[in-house]
Design brief:
By secondary structure, the chain is of the alpha+beta class. The protein has twelve helices and ten strands. The chain folds into three domains: about 5-125, Orthogonal Bundle (Butyryl-Coa Dehydrogenase, subunit A, domain 1); about 130-240, Butyryl-CoA Dehydrogenase, subunit A, domain 2 (Beta Barrel); about 240-385, Butyryl-CoA Dehydrogenase, subunit A, domain 3. It has helices spanning about 5-10, 15-30, 35-40, 45-55, 75-85, 90-110, 110-125, 240-275, 290-320, 325-350, 360-370, 375-385, and strands at about 130, 150, 155-165, 175-180, 190-195, 200-205, 220-230, 235, 280, 285. Helix 8 runs antiparallel to helix 9. The longest helix is centred in the middle third of the chain and has 37 residues, at about 240-275.
C-alpha cells in the first residue's frame, strides 16, 4: 500500500477514494511496467495509453455531465494527478494539462456555442486543447504577451510564438493569449482566442533536449498572421489576463499534487530499500538514526502537505479559496518535496542515480513543479501582497 493512501483514506469521501484507487490500479498495471522502456527509447506517452485514459473518462473528469463529462471538480482532478504522478509526472500531466489548462478555461469562460462545439469531444478525449501562454521572451511577465492579435476588418490576425506548451503534439486547438490593447491599463490589454492547430499559418514543433517530463509533449507553436474571428474569442475582449490567471490558479493545486506524488513514491521506495540494504556486516541501514530522520521528515511532510492540499481543493470546489492560497501550497509542496527527495537519494547512495530505481526521474520532474504555473520566486512576490499590501509586485 502506498503510504499516501493511508492519509487520503481519512481525507476523501468513499466514492472519490474509489475513483482514486481505480487510477492507482491503472497506473500500477499500465504505466509502471512500461515507463522505463519509454524513457530509454526516447518515446513519448503512446497513443494507446492516451486512448485508455480517454476510455476511463480522465479527459472529462471535471466536465459537466450535460456535455458528456464526469461532473467532477478540482478534487477529482487532483486525485487523478496524485494517482498517476506516482510513477511519472508525464502520465499525470497529459490528461491533467488537457483538463486544467485546456478544458477548464473553456468551461469557465466559453460561450454556450463554444461549449456545445468543443466540450463533448474534449470530455471523450477526441480533442485536446493546449494553453498558449509562455513565450521565448515572456516567462513571469505573462500578463504582457509578445504575441499580438491585430484587428483587420471583421477579423483578427495573430502573429508571434508560444513555447513550453504542454500537449502540443496531440492538441486539436490552442488557446492563444495575445496582446490586443497595448495602450490599455494593466490586466486589460490581452485577449484569449481559440485557434485550430490546422489553421493556415499555425506551425508546431516539439521542443528538443528536454530532460524533464520526458513522455510528455512540450511544443513551440508559431503564428504567421493567423486569421481568427470574433466568434473565436474566449471570454471578453481585452480580458485575457482574467482567463489566464483564473486558469493558472486552479492549475497550481494540480502541480502541488504532482510534487506530492513524487514525494509519496520516494518515501515508499526509500523505506523499503533501507530495510534491505545491509552494511557493516549485519545491520540494515534503517537502524541508523540519521536514516530514520530522513524517512520521518518525508512522512511528516507528506501528511502535512496532503492534508493542506486537500483542504484547499475542497475550498476551490466550494468557491471559497483565496487566490494566494493556491500559490502558497504550490510553493511549499514543490520546495519541500524537492529538498527531501535529494536527502532520500543521499541515504540510498549511488543506486539512486540509476534510472530503474525511480528517484532520478522524480528528481528531474520535480523541477517543473517549482517553475510551472508560475515560478516559485515570482509567486512569492504575489503571495506576500495580503501580508504587506504596499509591497511592489510585477504581478499586480
Amino acid at each position: 500500500m502506498r503510504r499516501i493512501d493511508h492519509y487520503l483514506s481519512r481525507l476523501v469521501e468513499e466514492d472519490r477514494l474509489a475513483f482514486y484507487e481505480a487510477l492507482v490500479d491503472f497506473s500500477d498495471s499500465e504505466i509502471a511496467p512500461k515507463v522505463l522502456g519509454w524513457e530509454r527509447a526516447g518515446q513519448m506517452l503512446p497513443d494507446d495509453v492516451i486512448a485508455q485514459m480517454g476510455n476511463l473518462g480522465l479527459f472529462g473528469v471535471s466536465v459537466d455531465e450535460n456535455y458528456g463529462g464526469q461532473g467532477g471538480g478540482m478534487t477529482e482532478l487532483v486525485l487523478m494527478g496524485l494517482a498517476l504522478s506516482y510513477h511519472t509526472h508525464s502520465a499525470a500531466i497529459t490528461p491533467g494539462a488537457a483538463v486544467s489548462l485546456g478544458t477548464k478555461p473553456l468551461d469557465r469562460f466559453g460561450s454556450e456555442a463554444q461549449k456545445k462545439e468543443h466540450l463533448p469531444d474534449l470530455a471523450a478525449g477526441k480533442r485536446m486543447f493546449v494553453f498558449g501562454l509562455s513565450e521565448p521572451g515572456r516567462g513571469s511577465d505573462a500578463a504582457n504577451p509578445e504575441v499580438v492579435a491585430e484587428k483587420v476588418g471583421d477579423s483578427w490576425r495573430i502573429r508571434g510564438e508560444k513555447c513550453w506548451s504542454t500537449n502540443a503534439k496531440w492538441a486539436s486547438h490552442v488557446i492563444v493569449h495575445a496582446m490586443t490593447n497595448p495602450e490599455g491599463r494593466n490586466g486589460h490589454r490581452s485577449t484569449c482566442f481559440i485557434v485550430p492547430m490546422d489553421r493556415e499559418g499555425v506551425e508546431y514543433s516539439e521542443m528538443s533536449g528536454k530532460t524533464v517530463w520526458k513522455q510528455s509533449s512540450t511544443g513551440s507553436i508559431g503564428f504567421d498572421n493567423v486569421e481568427v474571428s470574433e466568434a473565436d474569442i474566449l471570454g471578453e475582449l481585452h480580458e485575457g489576463f482574467r482567463v489566464m490567471i483564473t486558469t493558472l490558479n486552479g492549475g497550481r493545486l494540480f502541480i502541488a499534487g504532482l510534487a506530492l506524488g513524487s514525494l509519496a513514491c520516494a518515501l515508499d521506495i526509500v523505506r523499503k530499500y533501507v530495510q534491505e540494504r545491509v552494511q557493516f556486516g549485519k545491520s540494515p541501514i534503517v537502524r541508523f538514526q540519521r536514516v530514520q530522520d530522513v524517512i520521518l521528515e518525508m512522512d511528516l511532510a507528506l501528511e502535512r502537505n496532503i492534508t493542506w492540499l486537500m483542504h484547499l481543493v475542497a475550498a476551490h470546489d466550494a468557491g471559497t479559496i483565496e487566490r494566494e492560497q493556491a500559490a502558497k501550497v504550490k510553493i511549499d509542496c514543490s520546495r519541500v518535496a524537492s529538498q527531501l527527495l535529494l536527502e532520500a537519494m543521499e541515504i540510498c547512495g549511488g543506486v539512486a542515480c540509476l534510472d530503474e530505481f525511480g528517484l532520478a526521474r522524480h528528481h528531474n520532474d520535480l523541477f517543473v513543479t517549482r517553475v510551472g504555473e508560475g515560478s516559485n520566486r515570482a509567486l512569492m512576490s504575489f503571495a506576500v501582497r495580503p501580508l504587506v499590501p504596499d509591497s511592489a509586485s510585477f504581478l499586480q
